[in-house]
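Note to self: keep these together.
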Amino acid sequence: MSYDKLRIANPKLFFDGIDKGFIPSSAHIGEIAIGQAASSPMIEGVMGGPHAPESYTFDPYVGIPIGANAAYPKPWRSAAQKIQDDVYGAFIGPFAKMVGITDCSQNGTIGCTNDTCSKNGPINQSFLASVPEIYGRLGILLDGGYVGEVEFRPQNWYHQDQGTRDGPWWSNYFDPPITGDQQWLTKKDWWAAATKTVISVWYGTIKVDVEVATGTLSFDDDEHFPGEDLSAYNDYSLDLLFVMVSVAAATRWIL
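Structure:
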């Protein structure tokens, strides 16, 4: 069976296979390029980069902004990454992560898929234990039977190696350094801090559930509090309980 036939016949297994490395990422349909990571400050400057994060908020149930420069939240990007976004135009939109296949038992929409990975089947259960971590962008279908509807396009922006010149490096490079709420985060930290909404969109001829970044949190928001490092405390100790209660009180969780 070809990868394309597997994607149509058993999409859950197809995406899980990509996530775990059993199926090459090149088997994705419609995968889009990212653009190279940031180079030296001189080269970035000549190319018009790097580009600061952009803070926007939108409601995907009202409308999804599409376009390289549209009003959706974006992490910092190198000059090459911004140029690559501009090339895609209407193909490119908000940052997203696939979290599953739209299940017909929960959603009777066209393109939904029955759960074809039975828990009682011969497949090793550990193989199906986690949700595939396939990152990408939203865009607009430009051909086929659903032209104009929103689609998911795989793009591995989350795992791309940014080298030594990642967001925090640029924050310290500028004079004066960028601090507080305006700091440039790594792509992973930016995604962790973003507010996200799960929606169902097209991927080829099937519907998939994706988390889409719909806003960014301020460092001052309670939801952004990362917690204290408790690794130095013994498990189940009174010290640990004391620290947890103290942290909760300090952050107004139990006041």
